[in-house]
Design brief:
With about 170 residues, this protein is mainly beta. It has 1 helix and 14 strands, in the order ββββββββββαββββ. Helix content is about 5%, strand content about 35%. Strand 7 and strand 8 form a beta hairpin.
């Protein structure tokens, strides 16, 4: 029997509940990377990025850089926008913005540890990115999703259940 230690939705999805953008599971690319540039949605706010796992490490990279890791990727999900990249907060975010929402994201800290975060309340992109950059020391971090975000983390008494998602990230024993 498997016990879920952690689970969260792994980025945005289409109206058909398939992952929006790149999705790789067990080295099999199930959805191709989306490198289009469009206005109007968080996914396309630039730069967007990819969270990926190789045999020995986890990375958050800008989508255009994914080609450098494609051959060694075991799992990947694309989302957007990048919250932090190359140690800088995304230039499209405004400090004090009133664009408030529940937000979830993933980063890899300077020691190579994967960090997942979901806000308990409404926060803007800038404040959310600041957390990853300044407190969690993640030189690269990726926004996963907003209002519909859920996280199941019994170790912290968080039991968000239900929802309609395109992909999930889970840690099991």
């Amino acid at each position: 029997m498997r016990y879920y230690l952690f689970a969260t939705n792994a980025g945005m999805y289409t109206t058909h509940n398939s992952p929006k953008g790149l999705y790789i599971e067990n080295k099999k690319e199930q959805v191709h990377i989306d490198l289009k540039h469009r206005e109007g949605t968080n996914f396309y706010m630039q730069p967007n990025g990819v969270f990926l796992l190789t045999k020995g490490k986890a990375l958050v990279v800008v989508s255009e850089e994914f080609k450098n890791y494609k051959d060694s990727t075991l799992y990947a999900t694309q989302s957007g926008p990048m919250l932090v990249y190359n140690g800088k907060i995304n230039e499209h975010f405004t400090q004090g913005s009133l664009n408030l929402n529940i937000r979830s994201g993933v980063g890899v800290d300077v020691n190579g540890r994967v960090v997942f975060v979901i806000s308990d309340g409404f926060v803007n992109f800038y404040e959310f990115a600041e957390l990853f950059k300044n407190e969690l020391k993640c030189p690269n971090a990726l926004f996963l999703d907003g209002a519909i975000s859920k996280m199941y983390l019994p170790g912290l008494n968080r039991y968000d259940l239900g929802g309609d998602f395109g992909a999930l990230i889970a840690v099991t024993n």
